[in-house]
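Consider the tokenized backbone below.
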């Protein structure tokens, strides 16, 4: 019999939300691995969570991500942005989306546990 199709859900979330998200996923029986990461735009620490699940479980994982990682906006001084900070003359802070999550769902060709 064929094993059920697996998907790898890759979730990039804020550090603040990622610990809670990990706890909730594990409570619900979904495996999860968290690694520290850094966003290219804000150059702030964020977290990347990997969860390899059966295809029919992806929607439940996404529902948990939506519940635990809510987007909000924050005003960041232009000088704090690595891309624009140096020599920036504008003093108005820029509004950026923080929190929330970026999610990729990828097919898993093969899974092995050695
Ligand atoms: P960052 O690259 O640090 O981006 C943080 C937030 O800054 C983004 O939130 C977005 O609201 C804003 N932002 C990013 N680039 C911008 C730009 N050129 N101009 C104006 N605002 C900009 P999210 O979109 O929620 O992304 C959160 C984090 O997820 C990103 O952190 C990055 O680490 C990751 N990410 C987002 N899209 C990605 C992708 N297509 N591939 C890989 N990582 C991605």
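A designed sequence for it:
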């Amino acid at each position: 019999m064929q094993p059920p199709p697996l998907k790898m859900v890759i979730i990039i979330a804020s550090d603040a939300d990622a610990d809670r998200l990990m706890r909730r996923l594990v409570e619900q029986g979904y495996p999860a691995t968290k690694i520290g990461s850094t966003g290219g735009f804000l150059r702030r620490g964020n977290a990347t969570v990997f969860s390899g699940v059966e295809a029919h479980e992806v929607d439940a994982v996404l529902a948990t991500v939506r519940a635990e990682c809510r987007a909000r906006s924050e005003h960041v001084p232009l000088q704090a942005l690595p891309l624009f900070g140096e020599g920036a003359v504008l003093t108005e802070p820029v509004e950026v989306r923080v929190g929330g999550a970026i999610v990729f769902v990828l097919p898993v060709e093969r899974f092995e546990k050695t």
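Residues 2 and 110 are 12 Å apart (CA to CA).
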